[in-house]
Structure formats: C-alpha cells, structure tokens
Amino acid sequence: MKTTIYDVAKEANVSISTVSKVLNNTGNISEKTKNRIWKVIEELQYQPSVVTSARKMMKTIGLLIPDIANPFMAELARAVEDSGRKKDFSVIICSTDNNSLREEEYITMLKQKHVDGIIVATGLKNSQAIRELIESDMPVVMLSRDIPHLPVDTVVADDFKGGYEAAVHLAQLGHTNIAVIAEKINNTSIKNRVIGFKEGLQVSGIQIDESTILDCPYDLSASKDISLKLLNQKHRPTAVFVTTELLALGVLQAARQLHISIPSSLSLIGFDNSILAKISDPQLTTIAQPTEEMGEKAIELLMDGMANSKQKKVIQRVMLSPSLIVRDSTASLL
Question: Domain range holding 209?
Fold first, then answer.
C-alpha cells in the first residue's frame, strides 16, 4: 500500500498540517521536529507530489550585505547567487545599510522564514547577534568579513597581502611620498589593507607619515573633499592608495578639478576590482578580490554546515589571494 502523509504524521507523532508545513518549508517548525519528520519520510519512502518535491529540493539561504549600492558588494552578492543557483539554492539578499538594528531585524526575519542557512557579509562587529545565530544551530558562514574570536566558518580575501602588493607596486614605480585614504569603518578588512600597505612600504625602504593616512566615510563627496585638501598641499603626494574604489573616484574628481593629471602627475591605486575600476577615466589600477571564488567557497561551506548540522565540525577559515590589476592610473615617477 502506498505511504500517505497520514502515515508520516502518525509515525512522527505530529499533525498532518505540521508535515505539510515541513514539506512546503512554511510555518514555525523547530529544526528538531523537521529533522524527525524528514527521517520518517525517508524510512517510509514517502513520495510527495511533484510540486512539493520541487519545493523540498530548492533550499533557501539568506545573505546579509552592508549596502547593495556598493558595487563590490553587488558583485559579491551576484557571485553568491550564481553559485547558489547551481546548487539549487534560492538567495534572499538583505541590505543592512551598516545599521546594527537593521542587521538584527533581518536575522530575526530570516530565522522566522526558516532559511536553511545564512551568509553574513556585513561590515558591522555585531558579534552578539552573530553569536546568537551560531548558537541557534543555524548554518552560518562569514563572507568578506572576519570576526576571529567567533566559532564560525569564514571566507575572506587576504586583505593584508592586497595592501602589501599595492605598496610594492607604487614603490617599484619610484614613489616615496604616498598617502592613504581608508574607509572609516570598524572592520578588520580595511584595517588589514592599511597594515599590509604600511608593511609593503617598510619592506621597500619607505617610511609613511601617519598623518597622511586619512579616514573617510563611504561617500563620494567626502572623498572628493578630503582629496582636494590633500592635493592642495605644497608637498602633495605623488601617489595615493585608496581602500575602496568608490572613494578612489573622489580622488579622480579632485585631481581633475585641480588639473592634476593621472597618472603622469599622480598615481592612484584602488581595491576590489569592481565595475567602477573599469569604467573610470583613466581605468583604475587596483587590487582584485576573487569574488567568484569567494561566492563558491561560501556556498560550499554552508552546504557542509547543513549536511553536518548534528555533528561538531571543524571551523574553517578560508583566505583567498587577491591580485594586482595594472591599468592606466599608475605610472613611474618622472
């Protein structure tokens, strides 16, 4: 006799509606109950309808990003979405606008929707919210953000190496008077880019003046204003390293307003290799983050967490190597 949904409900000691909710991935059902029902379904070899089977196969994950308007984050989200689609995942993208309250609200919403896992790519150090998420047994992966003291799988680019390579590139071009414009946000990625850049200069025999390391909000106008002041100085720098490409556009605008030619009079190097680097004029020399590989690895780790949710797994921290892309905004010092 063919197994029915009634048989599953009876064996799992739940109502028929509870089984239906689990099959359709709806309702507020605990992970423990869901796992018990799926185990019974497998044991009884219950075959739900084609529609229900399709819903079961298509899992859902949440992706928290700081700002969908950030070109790099948009490309990273696309990489996660593309990688997820190949594995039959649908992705709910949540843009937090770097707001800790909104981040908590999205986490609550995703848990209520019973997503199968969450990828966190926000820049906030809201470690308590992340810790509670981990303790809820939800599979979680940190992407392009690192909170070392939390027991969570993490995928990041080697920001230190990227900053280091940017410094060595400028040093090899003969630059010694170099400034840094860094996004003013409390996350390890930006800090490590600056630390790596300083190390690259030091290894190249160049001491950077700490007063030329300038914090800047993630805002084009703010970057332009800071750059105008920097480039109006009597002994202005001959090269600038900018930790994100939107801020690098502010330097380009300031240089254009002051009739400073890039790269003949000023070299400029950014970080990310987003679409902004390719459409700027001149095209921007930059440190490229491996976005596709980062998205693929995040999905891979999340799937591993889903498959081993009942086991104590080894936490993985994957660091991928960025690369220098030389375009038209850097040149040898004349």
Answer: 159-289
